[in-house]
Protein 1
Amino acid sequence: MKYTLVLHCAGDDIESARTALDFAGALLTKGHEIFRIFFYGPACALANRYCEYPESQFNPYASWAAFLSQNDLEACVCIAAANRRGLFSQQQSEQLSPPTSATIAAPFVLTGLGQLIEACALCDRVITFR
Amino acid sequence: MTQMDVKKILFVFRTAPYSTYQAQEGLDALLAARIFDQHADILFIDDGVYQLLPTQAPIGMANIYKQLKSLPMYDVESAYVCQESLGQISLTEGEQPLELIAVEAARLLDLFRQYNHILSF
């Protein structure tokens, strides 16, 4: 089946971020297709590449980024939700004063809510993690 | 965007209107669904019923009640509310931001089964 996962869990909601990641891994193992992962609301913080954790601890950003790259998955981060949480693309960051580095970069891309609705229209299952 | 099927999506609102952005972000997603011609209905449950109260005076956030009042303009067809959750608040019919269909908690599963997708906020 064709799945989309929608994440709402905050960056420090480790259990939820890990459950979603495990679920995504299990889907691929079982031969399902993941069409898209959509990061909305507080979950936009999971795509912040400057989050740092002690080495022995689960790092949601690094774990998700590695999983997305290895499996060549589309990871959409809602642009409005990200921006209101201080997260910006390279292009946006250059226009900030003073200019700064992008907080959101590949494999994550900033997109609109249309990508969430398109995923609903095209997928058999849409699973939300809060 | 590629040619899209029309899916039935139920937007479930279960959080208080202003403690987080959940309610606003749910409404934004609901309007996006209507802009892309998806069938979108709405359910209020748990603390989500507080979004229905008319006396909202948020500071620095958009008024959820006023936005709910505008939903019929976007052809959001049905608005449901969990009957037990509705019992938490005092709301007369005239104060409702839009026409609400009360559903007993025990019947919610039947409601959920009518939809392709459920997005919860």
Protein 2
Amino acid sequence: MTDIHQLVKDCLKNKPSAQKALYDKYAPEMLGVCYRYTKSIADAEDVLQNGFVRVYSFLHQYRFEGDLGAWIRRIMVNAALTYLKKKQQYREDFFFTDSTELVVVSPISAEINITTKELAQLIRQLPTGYQTIFNLYAVEGYSHVEIGKMLGISDITSRTQYARARKVLAEWIKNYSEPQKQVYGKK
Amino acid sequence: MERNEFEKNISQKLDGFKLIPSEENWAKIEKRIHQNRRRRLVLWLSSTATGLFILLATITIVNINGDKENKKFTNTTTDKKINLEASTNSNTNNKKFDIQQEEYNDIEENNSTTLKDEQKKGNANLKAAITFNYRSTNNEKNTDVILSVKQEKTNDLAILDSTIAKVKYNNDFSKQDTTSGQMDRSPQKDSVIELAETNSSMSVVKHVDDVKMDTSAKQRKTTKVKTPWKMYIHTGIGMSVIGDYFVKPVDVNQRVFASFVPGVTGNLSSSAVLLNEAEHSSRTSFQIGLHWRKERKKSIISFGFNYLNAGSKVIAGARVDTAISSIQLRDANKAFDGYINNASANSNQTYVNQLHIIGLQVGYGAMLFKKINWQTNAGISLVYAEKYLHYISSRNIYVQDKSLIRPINFFISTGPEFVIGKKQQFLLNPSLAFFVQPVQKNSVNGSRKLMNLSLNFSMPIRK
């Protein structure tokens, strides 16, 4: 922890060596996060760059409370959402129904017998809206209310979209051999 | 929706998911960090410049208003406030006259009725309190005399029925103002005041007996004589700070502490070199130039040209070996080639480039106090570097690159100016100059600032 403290302090002094060290330490993990929110590795790297520039800009706000990695991860997620909003991706292929009818989730097997990378790739094949909500809820652990606020949608919409994404993804995992042929619910 | 096993498994599975970013990713991030830093600097400077501009504008407006006010009082003899409170034997009602901001022209022409005349007519036992300010201006030299006269108690009173009154005093005006050479028009203590009426509609002028006055006068000189342009030669020494694109160390992880070293090259500007953690280099600077300045009421306008030599022919570096440090000084021209060959990971050697900057400038000075001004100059400059060096981190070398320097540049400088001497006015002016982006190459890492802090001395070469 002391090393991290020193590293942060050196970064705050704008020492290039410390900034590079911080990047080297967290970049691979954060690129994994960015990768799940984007459709291409180039986009993921763009998000990573934006995120790290924010990290260095706002590092003075880090209070040395909690894990630095988690703090950076939140910044990366926000950077990803900003990036997606700029590109308006999840507006195009994301239909925001305000239907109060919740989708009944069919029993889904909890077993995931694929590799991490394969799973990440499957998530990326979801439509951007589904992908974003799935990542925020299932992986990052945000509630639907929080997701609604972050994306500017109602929490019910978030629940609906998540349920559909979950169902589609579960089926893809089950039939991993041909995920592209699966049909997902887009009205 | 409760999280169940499916979500937990997904989360666990993706928790340790890592990907290796491409190599150029960090270079892009580093570049953007520097850009952000530069933006913040520009923002800070813009804010400072804006604040300074507002300050100068305020001072200018105040000056302009001051000029207008002086013009307003030209040919004006009496103004401000006259309060008269009176009671007479025949009329016990108090009368109060409050005349403010009235202007009267040419007091000399309105002396037909005096208090003495009124005294002779009787009408004694009047009490009065008269307070007024008197301001007279002399057209030639624009000398203001501000006079406060308080008439504490009188037996008689000049009652002015009209709302316009004029005051004249009858002392002999013979006292000379030793500083301005002008007549002192302020009445002396216990002199008799004559009240004169300028308005023909005035009906009654009562007289005053035994006027006791408490007078106080103070003079404010505002010379309006046109001042000529004066030519000054100025010279200064200082320290210039330049971004690390010139002085990128061989190994940025090596720290070089701040070190002052004596100059050995004989160059005037090479008296000291400061290295600060090998990221920025401060080097001595030297400047000389001519400027012309003209003093106004509360400000100074100027223009001129300036030659600034930022940097010296010195190569300096610090070798850090365990706890022992040593300083190396070499002639840059000789050391340049050798430097590339001798560069090693254990040494922090910095080539200090030499910049020649010729600038044309205009300036504005605000007279803050009697002997202190605040001078701000701005202008355009031509920048020439003897060695156009560009550090390539991947190859760990410097290369010459003539596209590095932006040949035409803009600058702004500001600082206090201390006036020394009475007849011959010498000027001492510590100033900070900021050059706007002297480097144009985008691929250059590091900030692109060039600042120069100097102490300048100006001497008039023509009265």
